[in-house]
Write a structure and sequence with these properties.
Layout: H1 13-16, H2 23-31, H3 54-57, H4 69-79, E1 101-110, E2 125-134, E3 147-154, E4 168-173, E5 188-190, H5 204-218, H6 227-231, E6 245-250, H7 264-272, E7 284-291, E8 293-297, E9 304-308, E10 311-322, H8 325-329, E11 350-351, E12 354-355
Antiparallel strand pairs: 1-2, 1-10, 2-3, 3-4, 5-6, 6-7, 7-10, 8-9, 11-12
């Protein structure tokens, strides 16, 4: 399938009609027709590399060059809860940021007492579809990259659950400006990363546009709240109790995959598969840590955050993965709308696709 054109960015009636998805449907979509089948076998094509392009990113920003594509994409990411976006042509949509990624499926588990609600409560187990990606064009180790792990939780452990379920989405990332992390084992992603914007180099204008647009649409550009997880499966009468910060780290003891200039997608595949063998032989596990204690300093685009008293509460175990067209162009991860009080739904800043506060 050829790559999607610059279209299908804005929210559509299909987005508005979302009432939930089947885990099996989303899983099968992202694992379908991977770029390499089987991964790592002789004669397979290389992984595609989609460019993050300032010209495309800023298309429509001037009054005579409408529509402003990134504004449409940012608003849709906040307003649309859709898990899959096929578009009118079946080709999905173009990711203007984080276009290069790999999707994973597995299990979310909370193993420790937390004091939080929903799927942050001890004993919670949910199927998860995740996407590990980079902010920009260069996927290989040895370069400054901002790695990101986002996910959607399905409130079931039955992969063949017969009814559509609404998902809870989370967004975590390394420093928005990028870090020099050769192994994913050493990467720490958070829902509230630092922003050392000078590290982006020629990508600095894209970071500026991203920050300004997200602040205008949804106030906060560098923090994504976690209340969707703490409200997933929660009785309406029960108060919402949400951690303020979450970080994800590869579990200590996980194998380190060697290779100069290794593409992060190949690194992730090597944790779960042997080259040329389509049957998974391993898994990739991340620790879930949370805290409510953190401070921030610095101006926008130069923000630094300090956290205290991280508590380990569980893990994410991925046991299948694929880099695929649908994983780059069809699966959609909703950015939770900002609330003045993360535990109070009435304080949300955006309602019916408009900023109200």
């Amino acid at each position: 399938m050829s790559s999607v054109d610059d279209q299908n960015e804005e929210i559509t009636n299909d987005d508005r009609r979302y009432r939930g998805s089947l885990f099996s449907e989303v899983r099968d979509a992202v694992l379908h027709q991977p770029y390499q089948s089987p991964w790592g076998a002789p004669g397979q094509p290389g992984m595609p590399r989609y460019k993050v392009n300032l010209r495309r990113f800023a298309q429509g920003i001037l009054p005579f060059d409408k529509p402003f594509r990134f504004w449409q994409a940012a608003a849709r990411t906040v307003d649309s809860f859709a898990d899959l976006r096929w578009g009118t042509d079946g080709k999905g949509f173009r990711r203007l940021v984080h276009p290069n990624g790999i999707c994973l499926t597995g299990l979310w588990e909370i193993t420790e007492e937390t004091g939080y609600s929903g799927y942050f409560r001890k004993g919670s187990r949910a199927l998860i579809v995740g996407r590990y990606s980079i902010c920009c064009t260069e996927p290989r180790r040895g370069y400054t990259r901002s790695l990101s792990l986002v996910g959607k939780l399905f409130p079931t452990t039955d992969p063949d659950h017969p009814e559509p379920l609404r998902t809870a989405n989370f967004i975590t990332q390394q420093d928005f400006g990028g870090e020099h992390t050769d192994y994913i084992n050493d990467a720490v992603t958070s829902n509230a990363p630092d922003t050392r914007s000078w590290r982006r180099g020629w990508g600095f204008p894209i970071l500026i546009i991203t920050g300004v647009v997200l602040k205008l649409i949804d106030k906060e550009a560098t923090i994504r709240e976690l209340y969707e997880i703490s409200e997933l499966g929660k009785p309406k009468w029960e108060p919402t109790r949400t951690p303020k910060f979450m970080r994800l780290r590869v579990t200590p003891g996980q194998e380190r995959i060697e290779g100069d200039g290794l593409d992060f997608r190949d690194e992730i595949m090597a944790h779960i598969y042997k080259k040329g063998d389509p049957v998974p032989k391993g898994n990739l596990t991340f620790d879930i840590d949370v805290t409510d204690e953190g401070t921030q300093k610095g101006l926008p685009l130069f923000e630094r955050r300090t956290f205290n008293n991280w508590k380990h509460i569980g893990r994410i175990t991925f046991d299948r993965a694929a880099a695929s067209y649908n994983g780059d162009h069809v699966i959609h991860f909703h950015h939770p709308k900002w609330r003045g009080n993360r535990n109070d739904a009435s304080t949300v800043l955006r309602v019916n696709e408009k900023r109200v506060r």
